[in-house]
Amino acid sequence: MVDIITESDLRDLLFAAGTKQFTVAKDTYVTPSAKEYLQQKGIVLVRADKIDTEAILNTGQAIYTDITTGQGYRQKPEELTQLKDNLLVGKAHPRIAFRGKLDSLQACMLLLLKQADAENLPLLYSHLKELLEYCRQMMAAEVLDTPLEERLFWGLSQEEVHYLSHHIKESFSITEATPQSDMSNMALQLNWLRTQVRETEVAAAQAFIHNAENDRPDILQGLNRLSSAVFVLYSRVLSGYY
Question: Would you kindly state where each structural domain of the chain is located, as residue ranges?
């Protein structure tokens, strides 16, 4: 994956007074506005085939920068983690927390895929796999700061899936979908998966919504539609569709 440095990333860095250069890996994409920001600060952009620890130490430049405090480090502290490239944040940073929830969500889907395969439900397996692929697409879009592209779920648009999830009586002949302990294990697991999507959506809101400004409306909408999609799978299992 190619790392991307935006002007917003650089503004968050709070460069220390006297900073002369900013080193990134050779294949890192630095946006034009980010380059202009560095020029305005009088900071030279340096590219390296790899982040050469020894060479950077000889210049007295920090290898890593805490994006929250602007503190430079020659070695990555254990309590910090990489947001991207050589930019560090605390492990409780909202974007890291979101990535953790999205990672957990994918783990839940993998367990359900295993169960669908064991119960010989190939169509459900295929439908779940599409949702897993969408989660992985979402993770890549967040890490790379690229737009999350809309995609079809099982040949249906996200708007169609949203409609099905809100009209289960007409769509699946179901009058009651409240989870009950006597439901099948698959139905209960899908309901559990739905709750995990909702928790991931909350983590996304905490990471990307600031003072009513939504930095990633594509991801928030994508998670909302993903929740609808899981509810559709749950409803289909209840109706005997699979």
Answer: 4-90, 94-239
